[in-house]
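Name: Myrosinase 1-like
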Amino acid sequence: MFSSQVAVVSILLTLVGAEELVFPPGFKFGAASSAYQIEGAWNVSDKTESIWDRALHTLPWMSTDGTNGDVACDSYHLWQRDIEMAEELGLKFYRFSLSWTRLLPNGFANKISEDGKNYYDNLINGLLEKGIEPLVTIYHWDLPQSLQDLGGWTNPLISDWFEDYARVVYSLYADRVKTWITINEPVAICDTAYSMGTFAPGIIHLESVYLCSKNVLLAHAKAWRVYDEEYKPLYHGKLSICNHWVWFEAHTEDDEEAAELSRQYSVGRYTHAIYSNEGGWPPAIEERLNAYNVLHGYSHPRLPPFTDEEKELVKGTYDYYGFNYYFSLMARRALPGETITPHYVAGIRELGIVMEAYPDLSPTLPPAFYKYPEGLRKHISWIREKYGDLELMIAENGFYSTGKMNDFDRMDYMHDCLEQMLLAITEDGANVTGYSYWSLMDSFEWNESGLKFGLYHVDFNSTERTRSARASADYYKTVIKNHALHSPRP
Ligand code: BGC
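Structure predicted for Myrosinase 1-like:
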């Protein structure tokens, strides 16, 4: 926000006497989804297999209950109802992702699917007709299986294939889409996939984590530069990568270094190269991981080095800072001889760090999700401290439950996170310009299909996939309408 806007906001806030409750003028509310999780129609028309289709069809351990996203919310057919829900909520924007194999059945840009192209055309035009901005994620985890067969994110050529895919996407939609995310959560693509093996392609191989980390950054940078050079001058949109942000708090005062290393390992590894002045890997992580490799007899560094040219290519490839916030963890140094259980990012074991739940927070399902709204404000401060006063966008923030309609716990969590975000804006001066709730509707939740994040309940037992508003949808709708935060409790 510009300083004149801040002044106007604070005068207004003083007038209404509710300093922390009113959102800045122009602040945008949205809701999010992703292609594999909602579209279904996995083999309709000329769409080909993605790595999630393959994994959930062939690796039984990948899903908790043997289900998959073959039909999901059937948004391929029910997209008009999705737009209607976005309108009911009064959303300013709807964030959704494109399925790479629906648009480019070969994975490569030599063939564009007519049906795939029309599907997203209709969705974008339908949203715009209702005054809702489309916010498009180019890649939300569903890599073409044909590219996985060539090594996927571990093959250095993938950054060129992604660049080609992004260029096609801009050529089709950049005239109407003004806000973009290149890649959602590299930590899920590289770490959850290759260090935990719990996400597609489901291969546990630590070396691959770091090859993937580097290639994701190069792919993002190439796609950003195509937009910046060829499309931004025409359409003036903005584009960034989107990270998953876990706030790591030090267990005791002595654990501050462990907490900071955890932040640098899980997020800095995907942000330092883009947002820092010097570019490349976060030095503390590079030094420690490379020392690990020497100790274990490897002849190459653990983090594949960037050439000077690559550093320059990646550095500065952002228009805002996008991130998703769900939970926080405590970090501490491992005790001598302590066995470290993998948690969230398995590779962090290499740094001798243990991550645990906050002692006074009760874990809910799955244990990785420890609600700690304060972590949101803390990590907004961290981002600003490291990278300066950037425009920030919360591209996902959500709460899961087992499916009930009167979801007061979700409303409480949403309220508490929005309150922390407002404190970051009003007290700390952060320039947060948008918030997107995850998710518009219950969707296929990757390998935890029992979890429901939706403002709208989806009846997965009905062929119509009937959508019904939960109490939280009404709550969010009122917050958006008033442009102010109120307690969900009477
Ligand atoms: C992902 C979503 C997922 C959500 C809840 C986010 O990190 O981007 O795809 O559904 O977490 O698990």
